[in-house]
Structures are given as C-alpha cells and as structure tokens.
Design a protein that fits this description.
Shape: elongated
Structural class: alpha/beta
Strand order of the largest sheet: 1-2-3-4
Helix content: 25-40%
Number of strands: 7
Strand content: 5-15%
C-alpha cells in the first residue's frame, strides 16, 4: 500500500506541486507583494499559488486564460460544494459574457466572478483605422480558421450564420472555412453558403 501511495503521488505530480508551494512561500517572504495576477485555468499549480499567497496575506486575481472556453474543458468546472473549500482566486475575471455564464453555471461562485475583456484581442479596437474596410461593392474573401476544439468551432460557425444567414452574398463577402486537421468538417455541417477548404493552412493563405 505504501508503494502504491508513492506511485499515485508521483503520477499526479504531487511532489512537484509541493516543491512549487514551498518555493512560492520563499518568494513571498523575500518580496512583499500587494497582489498576484495569474492566468486562470483552475489547474493544480494555481491552487498552490493561492494557498501560498493566502498564508502570506496576499490577495489573488485569476484572469481567464485564452479567448474561448469549451464546455468540456473540465478544469474550469467544480464538483458539488467543491468551490466552498477548494483554493480559488479571490477574484476571477471572465474574458466575456459567454465564459462568465459558463463558469457561473459550472460552480464558480458569482460573488468572486466578474466580467472582463479579452486582453488577447485588444488590437481589434483600432482595427478599422489600421485596416480600412474595402469600398461597398468590392468582393471580399474572408478566411475563417477553425480551432482544434469541435465545440468552439461550432460556436464560431453558429455566430457567423446568425450574422450572415446568406453567407455574406448580399454584402459581397465570401467565407472560406478552413477546419483544423483534428476536427474535420463536411459541407453538410454548414448552415450557410461558404467555401470549405481542404489542404494545408499555407494553401489556404495562398488563395
């Protein structure tokens, strides 16, 4: 039993996380921090960070990592009553309304959850100034590269269909859909007129 216990701890990286916790404690003793901000995914190393920070009276803020949140990315969600005892950041920032509601429904306490922006896509604020849209009547081809997550890909295609039910024909837009190799797509899965691309991503960029 002792041998199996050590093997189980080794496979779950228990010793690595324990050393990480002790290193964080030493760091917090040396540097008097006022706040710790980290990319939030609810991973084991984050729990060690939160525990170490609390032991030194330092508040924590977890900013949701990445732009999207898949329903089956299970690390973000909690079991029954888990959030009442598991070490979570004092404040958790969601990247948008979809992620906010998904995490709230998945057990993240709403009193700790706030809405934020997607830091990865801040450049889009100045998109029109940097890349002016073509004049009306000019044919436009838009390459849509789908992610390697089927749920996120379907969510993106649904959003495109809601925005352009006719596939952009009235606006002179042609959508080129490039599926990820790990998530193949067939034409029957598209709800709007679009061109489904095969081949490599380099081939898609050369069109």
């Amino acid at each position: 039993l002792l041998r199996e216990g050590w093997l189980d701890g080794w496979r779950s990286s228990y010793l690595i996380f324990r050393v990480f916790f002790d290193c964080l404690g030493k760091l917090l003793e040396r540097f008097h921090l006022q706040l710790i901000i980290y990319p939030y995914e609810n991973q084991p190393w984050e729990k060690m960070l939160v525990l170490a920070a609390r032991s030194h009276g330092v508040p924590t803020l977890g900013y949701q990592h990445g732009g999207g949140l898949a329903r089956f990315n299970l690390a973000y969600f909690h079991g029954p009553d888990e959030a009442t005892w598991a070490p979570l950041a004092d404040l958790i920032v969601a990247s948008g309304p979809y992620a906010y509601e998904l995490m709230a429904m998945g057990g993240t306490p709403r009193e700790r959850l706030v809405m934020g922006g997607n830091l990865r896509h801040q450049y889009l604020r100045n998109f029109r100034d940097r890349f002016p849209l073509p004049n009306s009547g000019v044919h436009v081809r838009v390459l849509v590269a789908l992610p390697n997550d089927q749920d996120l890909g379907q969510h993106l295609l649904y959003a495109l269909w809601k925005a352009f039910p006719d596939g952009g024909l009235n606006e002179g837009i042609e959508f080129l859909i490039k599926p990820h190799p790990m998530c193949p797509l067939t034409g029957r899965m598209l709800k709007f007129p679009a061109t489904l691309l095969s081949g490599t991503f380099a081939d898609a960029l050369s069109l």
